[in-house]
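queue> pop job 88
queue> type: inverse folding (structure -> sequence)
queue> payload:
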């Protein structure tokens, strides 16, 4: 009878051990799934970060281009302003003296500056 008792206890312990092993396997499988899901999420995050970097670089490039364009427009406006001032001076000098001030004789300069200004506006 003692042998039967030991055999029954041994069988119960074996069944309990089998259950613990199966529970451990289930937990390992669940942990593996969590690790796989985490890896997939990290890959997705990395892709979004790369896309964000491309977008940010594009914005920076566009900003630099716009800053250059604004500087060119400011320069063109300044040149047009100079031409207008020179024309006004020429008008005053011409009516006062009857002559054209030196350095303002070329009407082509004003046309050229206006053309450059228009070209900058439509870049």
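queue> result:
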């Amino acid at each position: 009878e003692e042998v039967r008792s030991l055999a029954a206890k041994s069988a119960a312990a074996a069944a309990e051990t089998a259950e613990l092993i199966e529970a451990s396997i289930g937990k390992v499988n669940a942990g593996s799934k969590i690790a796989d899901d985490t890896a997939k999420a990290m890959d997705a995050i990395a892709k979004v970060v790369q896309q964000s970097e491309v977008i940010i670089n594009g914005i920076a490039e566009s900003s630099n281009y716009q800053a250059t364009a604004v500087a060119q427009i400011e320069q063109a406006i300044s040149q047009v302003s100079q031409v207008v001032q020179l024309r006004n001076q020429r008008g005053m000098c011409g009516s006062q003296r009857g002559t054209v001030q030196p350095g303002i004789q070329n009407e082509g300069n004003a046309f050229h500056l206006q053309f450059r200004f228009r070209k900058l506006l439509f870049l």
